[in-house]
Amino acid sequence: MADPIIDLSNISVTFKQGKQVVHAVKDVTIEINKGDIYGIVGYSGAGKSTLVRTINLLQAPSEGTVTIDGTTFFKDHRQQISNKELQEKRRNIGMIFQHFNLLNETSVIENVLFALKHSKLDDDAQEKKALELLDLVGLKDKAEFYPVQLSGGEQQRVSIARALANDPEILISDEATSALDPQNTNQILDLLKDLNKKLDLTIILITHEMDAVKRVANKIAVMEYGQIIERGPLQKVFLQPQQELTRQFVGGSLAAIDTLKAFDLEHLADDQELLQLVYDAGNVTKSIIIELYKELQVEVSMLYGNVEVLAGSPVGTLFVVIKGAPDKRQQAIDFLRNNNVTVTKIDDRRIWNE
Q1: Which residues are CB-neighbours of 337 under 8 A, at least 6 positions away?
Q2: Which residue among 72, 95, 96, 274 sits deepest, i.e. has the most Cβ atoms within 10 Å of its Cβ?
Q3: What's the pLDDT tens digit per position in 35-70?
């Protein structure tokens, strides 16, 4: 197996705020292979932004080793290469952000050309490359427009073109779709997935939105309080979440939450229980609920259901309320788990407090 393109080993980052020591990242080890779309998910304050600054070589770790594409840049807090080499290597990592960071006083093509100012290409070659990049993101016809004349999604496309100007092998998307509406979000995510294939680009998707990761990532890590609490192939983490936060992300799609809020789930009877069921391709075409009733005569009400494709395979999600005596409910849960269905008992308060 080839060495990972990004190898973070036992990374910790601490800051001093007055007399207080803040542990922003704690003993994080992560390997990202070339060609991955790797989703790093966590709520605000989880340590994602600090971890990003470590990956893009702007933040030296307090402890641990940062190796990118075979070169060790930091070991503990010590820089291992010269400042000039470090500056050159940073150009191999492109960045796109939530707020686009475009130069509003200059045209779209000039925004892309700005990223080529250190290029060895002559002016004509730079302009040709800038137009090619705009064509790649679907904006060649708007090269002379100004950012204010573009939609949010189009501005993010300009940011992507600019981030690709120096032919990076790695592209980091730091909450890049958070300010966009759902349609533009999906279009940007689909563009990133397309660029991943066309350019053999390794993409790191930093987000608090599980829907974004589910749409394009092949691997995922979940962060909480500066630590990675769960990681693995997307489908495995989705089907077999081990940590409570991961279960929240897996079941926390906007569509599911909006639907569940329409039900009076705060007042479930003592003999009722809200469950989330997640099942893989082998069970998608089965009538799980019907089989459950036939086997145990447990009453089941389906509140929300969805099937989506994760990493090329269909995965189904159901939210159901089961009704019956405690032993019957437990038998139902055991039956489902024995049929390769991941069952999570949902604390109903979590749903409407989102």
Answers
A1: 343
A2: 96
A3: 999 999 998 889 998 999 999 988 899 999 999 998
